[in-house]
Design brief:
Number of helices: 13
Strand order of the largest sheet: 1-7-6-5-4-2-3
Helix content: 25-40%
Number of strands: 11
Bound molecules: 4'-deoxy-4'-aminopyridoxal-5'-phosphate
Strand content: 5-15%
Structural class: alpha/beta
Order of helices and strands: HHHHEHEHEHEHEEEHHHEEHEEH
Shape: globular
Largest sheet: 7 strands, mixed
Radius of gyration: 22 Å
Distance between the termini: 52 Å
């Protein structure tokens, strides 16, 4: 399929002049900076925050580039991957005209962002075992379909998509295919970032909110062609990543072994939780997972959810979601948290 980024892009964005500051022209560190109406005397807090942060997060991207083996100019950093999802829709989908394809049951923000931006949602459900249906997906494409969102490992089911199905969709669609890998660090799957040089219509998303344990900082990544990344940079709010976040994450990235240790701990706890739930009466099914959560079918999900809330154990009730009848989505916690969940749930069921 021929992919033409200029055809995909909303015409006015091609013409758009992005926000620019004097510091886009003067990139030196030394100087008298009287261009941005900052406070020259310092910050009200300890730490040095009186100057605006680097809008393009150069230092952070260099480090991410080394870790992920993706060139820095092919990396976009967003205020969570949620920001990247929203910017993609604003860049490529004309409100009231264009559509995206999502594959329910899947991550909720694709739909929320599309609704906010007045973009039509075309749904192609996963199969009963939560696999992609590439033929049905490609059949659902029409001339106004701009983006297909694939989530793997998938939220809320936890399973990963078959690689050959993802390839089939990327190869059979002349719009943008987003592969959301928010949970990839919990699986043994190679990232689709390895495929970026083969497919100009591929964008891969990852996040610091899960394995890295930095959800409160709000930091997500999108990896794609230089041209697509330029578009995202052009339309993002100028200072979308705070100075505090950039500094903190730069430091965190020095110790990737800590992240790996936490992932191993989560996988161990996942096995523990799985073992305990498997033995529990009233648990009908636990779906295979490659993420840090379990989708668990119980005899009465809403009642179980309410009972757990009453015991201050909070899980996600997914029983109204398509293909997730009577299912709870349970995040893997610490041993103490998992024991609290196990105790409360076994009491109820
Ligand atoms: N994608 C998926 C599949 C998710 O589950 C989530 C968060 N729950 C996100 C993206 C958003 O992550 P972030 O915190 O980076 O916005």
């Amino acid at each position: 399929m021929a992919f033409d980024l200029n055809k995909l892009l909303r015409p006015h964005i091609a013409q758009l002049k992005p926000y620019s500051s004097a510091r886009d022209e003067y990139t030196g560190k030394e100087g008298v900076f009287l261009d941005a109406n900052e406070n020259p005397f310092g910050s009200i807090t300890s730490g040095s925050y009186n100057r605006y942060p680097d809008p393009y997060q150069h230092a952070l991207k260099e480090k991410i580039s080394t870790i992920k083996q993706v060139p820095a100019e092919q990396i976009f950093i967003g205020n969570g991957s949620d920001e990247a999802i929203d910017l993609l829709m604003r860049a490529f989908c004309r409100p009231g005209k264009d559509n995206i394809i999502i594959l329910p049951p899947t991550y909720g923000m694709y739909e929320v962002s599309a609704d906010i931006n007045d973009i039509t949602i075309n749904r192609v459900n996963l199969s009963e075992d939560f696999q992609l249906r590439p033929n049905a997906i490609l059949e659902a494409v029409n001339e106004n379909t701009k983006i297909i969102f694939i989530c793997s490992p998938n939220n809320p089911s936890g399973n990963k998509a078959k690689r050959q199905d993802i390839f089939k969709i990327i190869e059979g669609f002349d719009g943008l295919v987003v592969v959301d890998e928010a949970y990839i660090d919990f699986s043994d799957e190679p990232s689709f970032t390895n495929e970026l040089s083969n497919y100009p219509n591929l964008l891969v998303m990852q996040t610091f909110s899960k394995a890295w344990g930095l959800a409160a900082l709000r930091l997500g990544m999108a990896f794609a062609s230089v041209e697509i990344i330029k578009i995202l940079n052009k339309i993002k709010p100028p200072y979308n990543i705070s100075g505090l976040t950039q500094e903190t994450v730069l430091e965190a990235l020095d110790d990737t072994s800590k992240m790996q240790r936490m992932v191993n701990d989560i996988l161990e706890e996942r096995d523990y939780l799985l073992g305990a739930l498997t033995k529990m009466e009233g648990v009908q099914r636990i779906h295979p997972t490659h993420a840090n959560f379990l989708l668990v079918e119980v005899s009465a999900a809403k009642e179980a959810y309410d009972y757990l809330i009453g015991n201050r154990v909070i899980v996600r009730d997914r029983s109204k979601v398509i293909l997730c009848d009577q299912c709870l989505r349970i995040s893997v916690g610490t041993r103490e948290e998992n024991d609290r969940l196990i105790q409360a749930l076994s009491h109820f069921l």
